[in-house]
# Entry
Amino acid sequence: LPHAAVKRQISQLRHSYDFIIAGGGTTGLTVADRLTEAFPEKSVLLVEYGEIGYAAGIFDPPQTVWGESRASASSFNFQSLPNPDVKNKTALVFAGKVVGGSSAVNGMFFDRGSRFDYDAWTQAGSPEFDSSEDKWNWNGIFPYFKKSVTFTEPSADVAQKYGYTWNMSAFGGSTPIYSSLPPFLWADHPIARDTWKDMGIRVANECAGGDKEGLCWVPISQHPVTARRSHAGLGHYAAVNDTRPNYDLLVKHQVTRVLYPNGTTSGPPLVEIRSLDDDHLFNVTTKAEVIISAGALHTPAILQRSGIGPASFLSTAGIPVVLDLPGVGSNLQDHSGPGVSWNYTKPNNFSPLPSDMLNPIFAADAAAGFDETPARGPYTLAMSNSAIYISLPNITIDYMKIINRIYRMVDDGSAASYLPADYNSDPTLIAGYKHQLSIIADLLKNPKAPSIESPFATGTSVRAFLLHPLSRGTVRLNLENHLLQPILDYRTASNPVDFDIHLAHVKYLRRMIGTDTMQKYGTLEVGPGPSVQSDEALINYVKDNMTFSFMHPCCTAAMMPREKGGVVGPDLKVHGADGLMVVDMSIMPLLPSSHLSATAYAVGEKAADMIIKQWSKPFNGHELRATLRPA
Ligand SMILES: Cc1cc2nc3c(=O)[nH]c(=O)nc-3n(C[C@H](O)[C@H](O)[C@H](O)COP(=O)(O)OP(=O)(O)OC[C@H]3O[C@@H](n4cnc5c(N)ncnc54)[C@H](O)[C@@H]3O)c2cc1C
# Structure
């Protein structure tokens, strides 16, 4: 990445900024790019905790261990709280800490959710937000999915070799965030596809256009020629920074708080920033908006440090309450799930397979192929480019038993007993949760809305992503030091219906072992294993085998009405706070049926459009001015 216009200390900053964005990640960079493009006369300061640097692809060479992710060098990296509902296990929390954010460290699997997921966001805000101009349903966000990425079609021979299908009506953008289908698949890939077809799964032609139930090809967020990772730091900063004198990027600085003068919430607020080199604290004022884009883990931390959050928690933390918003850091969701694994007992001659990477000649050729133009070979595949997404009615004939259990817990009020204790019986959080559960129950009933995702590329195991968790976790400041990493409590499967759904998913996945395709190779189940049959034993297996986080934390500053525990409105402005917005994966009320980066770019694009529309009007005749002030 070129380093022009990167600022590293306060003395390099200009004296006035119109917009300040906290967090140079997937969404923050998208917004900064669009604002500096639309408003050449207005200045934008983007403050990023991490450094600017090369972000290797998830599996780029050279590697000491094939498949090892190198994400840790540029990531926040800490342990969650132990989970009493899943044998007191903890999980590794990972999030990008680099210019590009999590798009620069992620698995590069680049799918979108189903249309029903985004329609559910609108339902979460209904009826209170019904009259808003800002529509976050599928029709309202689809144009921004298209705008946010340049999808390049595979060559005809690659498409024919692997049977790739796609539909360009889902794409059409020219933003330099790239996605493509790779010119390489492992030799056992067709087994999985044939197995799913044996299971009667619909083979989808294109899954990025909103209709996503079935067997899908998924693009990879990489350049179509070099196969190098494409991320927000490249597409929304390096590609534009030398043409934007109004765009300043301050790296290695932490946004600590936003500060309103005199205990009010009329704004826009000051932004307090800390140098990570020397701990120096300083304030910057802004005229237009402060936009918090620090990701689902750190956005609530900034708000809580600012006195914007659950009043009861803030007083425990000794922070004066500026705005009691119980939803800040609540409503944490993530995809979780166990896996199913098997062995082939009959000889097969699949070649090549990842085990061939242990052969020095094969490995050297793979590395050389990655440096060719165009790149070829195993390294162009990244993590995977296929998955099944199946609805609950297509998974189990007993789906209504599960769904009725959800409706019952909403009706009889018992749903609230599964919420975190520190929700302190807050009526708004409980109302919002019940509203969400009804929406999820409706989603799960829909035969076209996926309940499970199971990605695959190669090998002898698949995992079962629970796409619509009912359990809710929390992100809270570390009471010992508010500036350290927040305390994350996933509370995975704290709502017992999540176990019912995991159980249905595992039973469904283990059925694949019995298909004709699998049996051709003498496939035997290894996990859960033939001896694990009763529901009780299976739940025990799920607990032992559970991945708490597929690295999709979200929803901790949800776009919902304040009276339902929401933090932002459909204009993404924080309820009750002037000049303060949240634009990142925190704003989703509910998880979509997808990994999150494509949605993060689309949210960034849509938010930027809304901000541009608002600030294209004259600024009330005032001169645009902001000043640096000592703290
Ligand atoms: C290891 C991993 C694998 C993943 N795999 C996939 C995948 O294969 N496909 C997919 O689509 N999604 C994947 N995801 C999820 C996806 O990448 C993220 O959900 C998405 O990029 C989040 O975007 P965001 O803008 O909300 O936050 P981020 O992109 O994480 O950006 C937040 C930024 O804010 C900065 N920041 C934090 N606190 C502060 C502060 N106080 N002051 C200043 N800056 C701050 C951070 O350093 C970061 O750069 C993965 C995520 C991870 C971590």
Notes: The domain at 1-397+449-617 is CATH 3.50.50.60 (FAD/NAD(P)-binding domain).
